[in-house]
Amino acid sequence: MTAATTIATGSPPDLDAFREQARAWLREHAPDPSPVTDIEAARAFQAALYDAGFAGITWPQDVGGRGLSTAHQQAFSDEEAEYELPTYPFTIGMGMCGPTVNDLGTPEQRTRYLPRLLRGEDIWCQLFSEPGAGSDVASLQTRAVLDGDSWVVDGQKVWTTNAQWADFGALLARTDPDRPKHSGLTMFVVDMHAPGVTVRPLKDMSGRAPFNEIYFDSVRIPADAVIGEVNGGWHAAVTMLGHERVSIGSRRRPKTNPLDFTAVAALAQRLGVSGEPATRERLAELYARERVLELFNVRLRQEAAAGIAPGARGSVAKLAGSMLARLAVDTVGEIAGPEIVAWDPEDTTGAAVALGINSTPSSSIAGGTNEIQRGIIGERVLGLPKEPSVDKGVPFRELKVGTQK
Asked: Helix, strand or coil for residue 251?
């Protein structure tokens, strides 16, 4: 049992038995890691997780979850960190969309969507960012117009993770341009296979295509697909962003991650520099920050179990996670020197480190930039004065934002 788990008080009496069950199941069923995502294999594994009782551990029982404590989830997370499980396609749905539907969805929506998500039958994506609305999501211009008993959506989204596999998306669109930008938005469930939806991959500098741009051309959405209230989409968005920032900040790095403390310390040992004072100092800082973030996330999960929403403190986890990734990259650079740009082609560690370095900058952008997180923390956690806002109360159609003239 890790130190992060043992700080929990009042541990459930069946926790050790649950942990042993998880350990035994993972030992038998965890597949060998693969560099290529096999989407059907991922669905099958998620279904197996569900059948074994390890999907939706803390989710309500009425939607297919186990209804167990965060201590149980922590125990399973400790055990799964030993493996590279093929659950990446479900991270958006499980960490962001599903919890938001659970919070704000109708009973029919919860019953229709959440059990299928848990069983791996559906994959979800989050449709917020646009070419002219990134950190300022409320400036989005994708429109949804009510036409009879359905909404017609036109617009574009970008930087959408997992859209290439998604069956459904949580779409934020503007439904009333005569309201101020924050109050004329609505969140919808959109069928990603519906006529008029086009998904195009976007490559990043790592050479992979984890993101997509999405086009909506007169896409019809049923009236009962609204999540929350019509024109109450900003509340739904804030709810989802809170789940997103906790999810990103608390996401466990796989045991084989080349940028965590254990791997970086092993690299220093292999290069013969682990005894140098400067190296030891950097490694100590990396270890300390990893532990602090882990313990902070345990606290958030414990509070959530007690009915205390993380709120803006989710931004603390998200900011700390991206700063930790940056520190890890800098530490590897100082330790490895030229090996981070030139390595033996047979050295899989060198290639993994390079991929991690190229992927790290996105952690300070995805889910809201570090600057946005600092603003949220300052205003909503520390109680500092809000930044001046010149567009408060102004109808959106009168604003010059993004590509709107």
From this structure: coil
